[in-house]
């Protein structure tokens, strides 16, 4: 991962009780190889590990 990236982000992260991380605002979401998405309005990230659409939440924590 490029740690010398000069881009910045501004976001609000909310931990939803028993659910995902809800991130709103300007973010740069990266995996080890590339950008996954750039500046979405809102992202829900899996915290339970059961999502079939990682890193995004697919509601599997409700089961």
Walkthrough of the structure:
It is a single chain. The N and C termini lie far apart (34 Å). The model has no long low-confidence stretch (mean pLDDT 83). The strands form two sheets. This protein has a three-stranded antiparallel β-sheet, with no helix packed on it. A two-stranded antiparallel ribbon has the order 3-4. 0% of the residues lie in helices and 37% in strands. By secondary structure, the protein is mainly beta. The protein has strands spanning 10-15, 21-26, 28-30, 35-38, 42-45. It is built from no helices and five strands. Strand 3 (28-30) and strand 4 (35-38) form a beta hairpin.
Features of this protein?
two-stranded antiparallel sheet, 63 residues, globular, 0% helix
Mind telling me the C-alpha Rg? 13 Å
How far is it from the N-terminal to the C-terminal residue, by CA? 34 Å
Percent of residues in helices comes to: under 10%
Number of domains: 1
Total beta strand runs = 5
Largest sheet: 3 strands, antiparallel
- Which spans of ≥5 residues are poorly predicted at pLDDT below 50? none
Reading the helices and strands in chain order gives: EEEEE
Number of helices: 0
Strand content: 35-45%
Strand order of the largest sheet: 1-2-5
Average pLDDT over all residues: 83
Outline type: globular
Would you tell me the structural class of the helices and strands?
mainly beta
